[in-house]
């Protein structure tokens, strides 16, 4: 699909892009897109800032890195997460059946 688009210059509609798995969603208008973006931002903001930063850092790493290097980076990120106050807060919140209050530490 990518090669076809790059070589031909063809354009895809939002619906076709969603069907091809190239986008997360296809929405009817800008207002719906803004509502969806804000809802997603709220869900992300509820997560541990430490975990969000680690996830973004991992996503930005080169996709063509070898598996061994990628696994080492993931193990390092998990070790940092497990040692964090946010991890302890997340576990405590689950046990107490309450919403966690993450600090990003």
Describe the structure.
The chain is mostly helical. The protein has helices at about 1-10, 15-20, 30-45, 50-60, 65-80, 85-95. It has 6 helices and no strands. The mean pLDDT is about 85. The protein starts with a helix and ends in a 9-residue tail after the last helix.
Give structural attributes.
mainly alpha, Lyase 2-enoyl-coa Hydratase, Chain  A, domain 2, 2 domains
Q: End-to-end span in angstroms?
A: 42 Å
The largest sheet, given as strand count, sense and whether it forms a barrel, is:
none
Note the beta-strand portion: under 5%
CATH-derived topology of the largest domain: Lyase 2-enoyl-coa Hydratase, Chain  A, domain 2
Q: State the helical fraction.
A: 55-70%
Counted up, domains total: 2
Q: What's the total count of β strands?
A: 0
Low-confidence stretches: none
The average pLDDT value, as a whole number, equals 87
CATH superfamily of the largest domain: Lyase 2-enoyl-coa Hydratase, Chain  A, domain 2
Global geometry = flat
Number of helices: 6
- CATH architecture group name of the largest domain: Orthogonal Bundle
Structural class: mainly alpha
Radius of gyration: 19 Å
Summarize this, please?
This protein is mostly helical.
Can you lay out the helices and strands and say which pair or pack?
Layout: H1 2-8, H2 14-19, H3 30-45, H4 49-60, H5 67-82, H6 85-96
Helix pairs in contact: 4-5
């Amino acid at each position: 699909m990518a090669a076809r688009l790059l070589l031909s210059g063809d354009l895809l509609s939002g619906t076709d892009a969603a069907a091809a798995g190239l986008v997360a969603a296809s929405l009817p208008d800008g207002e719906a897109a803004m509502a969806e973006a804000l809802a997603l931002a709220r869900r992300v903001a509820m997560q541990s800032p430490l975990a969000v930063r680690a996830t973004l850092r991992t996503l930005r790493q080169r996709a063509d890195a070898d598996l061994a290097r990628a696994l080492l980076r993931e193990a390092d990120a998990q070790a940092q997460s497990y040692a964090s106050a946010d991890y302890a807060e997340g576990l405590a919140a689950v046990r107490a059946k309450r919403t966690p209050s993450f600090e990003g530490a």
